[in-house]
Design goal:
By secondary structure, this protein is an alpha/beta fold. 37% of the residues lie in helices and 21% in strands. The protein is built from 18 helices and 17 strands. Helix 1 packs across helix 2 and helix 11 packs antiparallel against helix 12. The longest helix is centred in the first third of the chain and has 12 residues.
């Protein structure tokens, strides 16, 4: 596959540096740009990626850079072979990289982080493990590097060579105020005016740290997107649960013994345990004659959807990957995609009908999920049905503002 002109320009413009960030929106081809840059370094490459995209990365290198040997570092024998290969390319997940202590002995290699926003938490084990690696060259890839929260850029900036510490960064670019809760002091970002000096921050990112930002609309002409918000009535059990913090559904009962559980069970009652939504889905599917993708969250939702949908169904989750079978199947069919396993990395541009049976709490997962179909190669208008009920309406408002939904926003 040849690079598009805009992709070649990105490579040419960053040829002078060995540490770059390619923040290219979905569909712009950041995988090809990143791998081409990595190969130009001429040394061993370690690719850290979400579990759902590892196999796609391996296949990409085999197709586009066949002169490089590929290694799946989840397998001990391949890990050993990778370490001794001066020009190998190893692939490992964020959850595993910090557990492979052998990688700490490597030197002079290229580190490439796919979906680099996964290192936004500097205190997590995976971020600390990555920061310990003795890489010489660095490539960061993400379509949503900060999810709209500039404070989440700090760790990535630090890896790229930013000198100031976190306190200095927050003092300069974030409007934060101190709160006191039971004698414990902590800082909170202002909701009214959270950031400052953003022009300066953007200049540093682009000029000093060699970050390339690119929007899909800037380089690709894609079909229209149509979002249909379907506000569905909540069941009476939902209202009872919010009022009493308890509900007995016969085979199961929900007890709101913590704010986190109350939010979780409220989501169950709006989706999994909402007969109104199930009936709405049946009616919706009756009116669609094409292939359909349905995004879901929980394992119980998968079982419900399989039981409810009478069409031929395929699944993409942590245990099953039936994307190829879904693509090749002739006739009306449904692909059930779990967010954590399929919201990133999949190429589903052969389909243009998408239903959100339930919503994620992560803005990044939400944005990524939309781009599975609306990407280079899509030839038809994409229609998204967002089935919302109760608390899901508030979740959607946050996601549309590119903000994560959390317990602080839950009014239950």
């Amino acid at each position: 596959m040849e690079l598009y002109d805009y992709q070649q320009k990105i490579i040419d413009d960053t040829a002078c540096t060995n540490k770059v960030a390619y923040y290219l929106e979905m569909g712009c081809g950041k995988t090809l740009v990143g791998s081409t840059k990595a190969c130009s370094m001429g040394v061993k490459t370690l690719v850290v990626a979400p579990k759902s995209t590892i196999q796609q990365w391996i296949e990409h290198y085999k197709e586009q850079h066949s002169n490089w040997y590929t290694y799946d570092l989840s397998k001990p024998k391949q890990l050993k072979a990778f370490i001794s290969d001066p020009k190998g390319v190893g692939f490992i997940t964020y959850g595993l990289v910090w557990r492979r202590k052998e990688l700490n002995e490597l030197k002079g290699f290229t580190l490439m982080l796919d979906e680099s926003h996964n290192v936004c938490n500097p205190t997590s084990k995976q971020t600390k493990g990555i920061m310990k690696l003795k890489y010489e060259n660095l490539i960061l890839l993400s379509g949503t590097p900060n999810g709209g929260a500039y404070e989440k850029l700090y760790t990535q900036m630090k890896m790229l060579g930013y000198k100031s510490n976190k306190k200095q960064f927050e003092d300069r670019y974030c409007n934060m105020f101190e709160m006191n809760n039971g004698g414990i002091k902590f800082k909170v970002l202002s909701k009214v005016n959270p950031y400052k000096n953003l022009d300066e921050l953007n200049r540093i990112l682009r000029e000093d740290l060699h970050c390339v930002f690119m929007k899909t609309d800037d380089v690709l002409t894609l079909p229209e997107q149509r979002f249909i918000e379907c506000d569905i009535a909540v069941p009476k059990e939902y209202k009872t649960f919010l009022k009493e913090d308890y509900i007995d559904l016969g085979e199961k009962e929900y007890v709101a013994d913590s704010p986190t559980n109350k939010l979780l069970y409220s989501r169950y009652l709006c989706g999994l345990d909402n007969p109104n939504k199930v009936e709405y889905l049946k009616t919706l599917l009756d009116g669609i004659t094409d292939k359909v993708i349905i995004f879901y969250n929980f394992e119980d939702e998968l079982q419900l959807l399989r039981k409810t949908i009478k069409l031929k169904t395929f699944v993409c989750n942590g245990a099953i990957k039936q994307v190829t079978e879904f693509r090749d199947f002739v006739g009306q069919s449904v692909l059930l995609v779990q967010y954590q396993a399929g919201a990133t990395g999949l190429n589903l541009q052969f389909c243009n009908k998408i239903i959100y049976f339930s919503l994620p709490l992560s803005s990044n997962l939400f944005e990524q999920s939309k781009a599975r179909t609306w990407r280079n190669g899509q030839k038809h208008k994409c229609t998204y049905w967002l089935l919302t009920s109760g608390v899901e309406c508030d979740i959607l408002k946050s996601l549309n503002n590119k903000q994560d939904y959390n317990i602080k926003l839950f009014k239950g």
